[in-house]
Structure to design on (134 residues):
């Protein structure tokens, strides 16, 4: 678990194998303008990635700008997600895909990411059965 708002190399989802598994077998939901793909497994690690459709944003400059904003918004709001994953002792691979048609504003993305992370934490806690003591 990280104590600061960093987005280090260990936190980035870059493995081709992990990405293919995420899109093939993972679950998804969307909170406009962000669509989330995620997989949950055993461990205590969160790996995240961001992406933007080249069909919607033709210019690489625009795609890079949106990805930069997504990474920044995730970086500043990820602490509740890390605590939620740590309490359930799960590993989470998550990919945030921007599905809006226009260049986003930072404040709007911040609100959407907050809602997205809350929903993701709820879904993780639903998939993890509560351990009852006998």
């Amino acid at each position: 678990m990280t104590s600061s708002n960093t987005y280090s190399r260990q936190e980035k989802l870059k493995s081709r194998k992990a990405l293919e598994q995420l899109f093939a077998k993972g679950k998804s939901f969307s909170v406009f303008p962000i669509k989330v793909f995620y997989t949950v497994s055993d461990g205590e690690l969160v790996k995240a990635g961001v992406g933007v459709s080249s069909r919607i944003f033709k210019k690489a400059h625009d795609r890079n700008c949106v990805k930069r904003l997504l990474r920044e918004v995730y970086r500043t709001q990820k602490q509740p997600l890390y605590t939620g994953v740590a309490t359930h002792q799960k590993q989470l691979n998550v990919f945030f895909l921007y599905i809006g048609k226009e260049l986003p504003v930072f404040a709007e993305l911040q609100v959407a990411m907050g809602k997205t992370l809350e929903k993701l934490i709820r879904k993780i806690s639903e998939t993890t059965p509560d351990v009852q003591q006998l």
Observations:
- The longest strand covers residues 34-42.
